[in-house]
Each structure stands twice: as C-alpha cells, then as structure tokens.
Amino acid sequence: MTKHTSINIARMRYRIEFGRYVETDKINPNTGESINSFSPLLTVWAGKWSLSQSQQLTLVGAGIKDAVVFFIRHNPNIESDMTMRLGDNEYTIDSINYDDGLTANAFDLITCHRKVVDHG
Question: What is the pLDDT of residue 19?
C-alpha cells in the first residue's frame, strides 16, 4: 500500500476501543436469552481522515452510508469483524486498509459507520 503522506499525527486525539460482544451471565427477563456485552480487547489513538468527494461517492455506491474513516498506527491485531467504540458511539467496521507496517510511519485506514440501535 502507498504511504499516507498527508497524515498528521497531531490529529490523533481520539481514544478508540476495539472489541467484540460476548455473552454475560445476565438473562433478559423478556426473552430468557443471555445478554451480550461489549468486551474491549485493545485501545488505540486515532485521528479522523477526510474523504474526498470521489471517495464518498464510491462508498455510497458500495452501499456504505454515513461513512467515517479513522487512521491509526498500523496494528495487525485489529480485524474487520470487531466492533469499534468511541465514547458512547459504536461503529461497524466496513473495511480496513492496512499499511505494510514496514516502517515506523505505517498507518491503517479504517472505514466504518455508526451503529444505530433500534429499540422499536
């Protein structure tokens, strides 16, 4: 992958948690099923990546709406089936553009969208 030369590490001001949902010992009284809870596996510093209009159109064409892209230091432990959490918001990872990780300046771009919880 080509280097992300326009990344400004001073913009890495977000603490993002990556994890998975796991079953707890709590039971939903309405359904009798186990209640799942977010279990963070790792936390990293991240910055928001600005998308060009062309990139935004490409994502919409792929069915990805309201996309947000974060950049992080290269981390091969982050997988696309993880859930991302920033504050009270959770995000579904749509894609990860991994850098090669061969240099100290390797960054990964994570395209995601905010999960909308529908209790209705």
Answer: 97
